[in-house]
Design goal:
Blueprint: H1 5-8, E1 12-18, H2 23-27, H3 40-53, E2 60-63, H4 67-73, E3 83-85, H5 102-108, H6 110-117, H7 131-148, E4 153-158, H8 160-171, E5 188-194, E6 197-205
Parallel strand pairs: 1-4, 2-3, 2-4
Antiparallel strand pairs: 1-5, 5-6
């Protein structure tokens, strides 16, 4: 069946939720693909996310398959919403830097750490992804979901790095530019997708949380 003009230009609302707090967030450790669980505050943040969206229409929910993202939106399943696991919503794979604090990374991999901190798009993290590779993965999956859910309201449970790429993509901000926007645990961030164009509608909302959330350093 031929797609109508109205369907082709319908606006999709993406609600991007960063996972709740983990012990490694508090320690400043790079989590990447390592499956770190939510800490007690992170579980409370997950409940706050559930309360916020329990009475709102959500046409679909996708989550990174890592536990900290899944657990953040899992309470919504109590309201009959199916949560689909999407591995492409995972955090960037940080290779040899995974599991390290900034001080440890600087001591063990000084030159590599300096290039990582400078956001060089093509610096290779042994065993991991370059920033450019990671960015393309994120852009591919959100663009695909935008086409699949035209005119719908979709929640994505994901990670700080994914939020960083999505914001930059929507605002045409370069990958190597310094970040000037917040990425907080359990924050609500809204992007609109219409006719291949992206727009930031709301960003960094933590009004539903009982205490201030950590920003992604």
């Amino acid at each position: 069946m031929k797609e109508s003009t109205a369907d082709a230009v319908a606006t999709t609302e993406f609600i991007l939720v960063r996972h709740g707090e983990t012990a490694w967030n508090l320690e400043g450790r790079m989590q990447g693909h390592l499956d770190v669980p939510l800490n007690p505050l992170g579980l409370l943040q997950a409940e706050a996310i559930c309360k916020r969206f329990a009475s709102e229409r959500l046409d679909a929910i996708y989550s990174s398959d890592l536990e900290r993202a899944l657990k953040t939106v899992q309470p919504l399943a109590q309201h009959g919403v199916t949560i689909e696991r999407e591995p492409r919503l995972r955090e960037r794979h940080y290779g040899v830097l995974q599991g390290l604090t900034s001080n440890e990374a600087a001591a063990l991999h000084g030159p590599l750490w300096d290039k990582y901190r400078a956001r060089h798009p093509d610096v290779v993290l042994a065993g991991g992804e370059t920033l450019r590779e990671f960015s393309q993965r994120v852009i591919d999956v959100i663009s695909e979901l935008g086409r699949r859910h035209r005119g719908q309201r979709v929640l994505l449970a994901t990670h700080g790095g994914v939020l960083d790429v999505a914001y930059r993509h929507a605002t045409a901000m370069p990958l190597d530019g310094p970040r000037n926007f917040p990425i907080r645990n359990a924050s609500v961030n809204v992007l609109l997708h219409r006719d291949q164009h992206w727009q930031v509608a709301n960003w960094g909302d933590v009004s539903h949380l009982p205490v201030q959330a950590l920003d992604d350093a």
